[in-house]
Amino acid sequence: MSEKTMKLRGRVAAVLGNNIDTDVIYPGRYLNITDRDKTAEHLFELTYPEIRAALRPGDILIGGENFGCGSSREQATAAVKYSGVGAVIAKSFARIFFRNSINLGLPVVTTQAVEARAGDELEIDLLTGKIVNLTSGATFDAAPLDPRAVELLEAGGLIPYLKRKHSAA
């Protein structure tokens, strides 16, 4: 499996700071919305509505330390994924946000150093942990994702993975 790659390409939509919590990502007043597609309508509504308005499918968000901290609500991850974000890169993630992301099929990548600005084009190899800024030519190391997590991402998340696995059995 070491020769296998799973590469993503996308434009950096925004570079955010540290401690972007789930209330910033998805305001608590919308927790009654059960349609995951509709959660995207409220992504960053109270703090960064310009990001949501400018997002294009496959875009990448970059955060600092502790991205997704706060409550363990899955709606925050759903809002990011269903808004069309292709991946989130951060120095660190809240554990539950990270796991929710993998389970919903949203790639999350941990790296201590990535130099990118909004508008830069990035390529991320999830298995090797290499990030290439195609705009500047710079290359960065990230933590490679476990091949089992990549398998979930390739399937579209935990539920599609389990459906596929059990229908084949």
CATH topology: Aconitase, domain 4
- Whole-angstrom Rg: 15 Å
The proportion of strand residues reads 15-25%
- Please tally the β strands and state the result: 7
- What's the CATH H-level homologous superfamily? Aconitase, domain 4
State the helicity in percent bands. Answer: 25-40%
C-alpha termini separation: 23 Å
Number of helices: 7
Overall mean confidence score, pLDDT: 93
- Strand order, sheet with most strands: 4-3-2-1-5-6-7
What class, by secondary structure content? alpha/beta
The CATH C-level class name: Alpha Beta
Give the ordered list of helices and strands. Answer: EHHHEHEHEEEEHH
CATH architecture title: Alpha-Beta Barrel
Please give the domain count: 1
Shape: globular
Describe, in plain words, how this protein is organized in 3D:
- The protein is built from 7 helices and 7 strands, in the order βαααβαβαββββαα.
- Strands 4-3-2-1-5-6-7 form a 7-stranded mixed beta sheet.
- It is globular.
- The model has no long low-confidence stretch (mean pLDDT 93).
- It has helices spanning 22-25, 36-39, 49-54, 74-82, 95-104, 147-155, 158-168; strands spanning 7-15, 60-62, 87-90, 108-110, 121-125, 130-133, 139-141.
- β5 (121-125) and β6 (130-133) form a beta hairpin.
- The chain has a single domain (7-168), classed as Aconitase, domain 4 (Alpha-Beta Barrel), CATH 3.20.19.10.
- It starts with 6 loop residues before the first strand and ends with a helix.
- With 169 residues, the protein is α/β, with parallel strands linked by helices.
- α4 crosses α5.
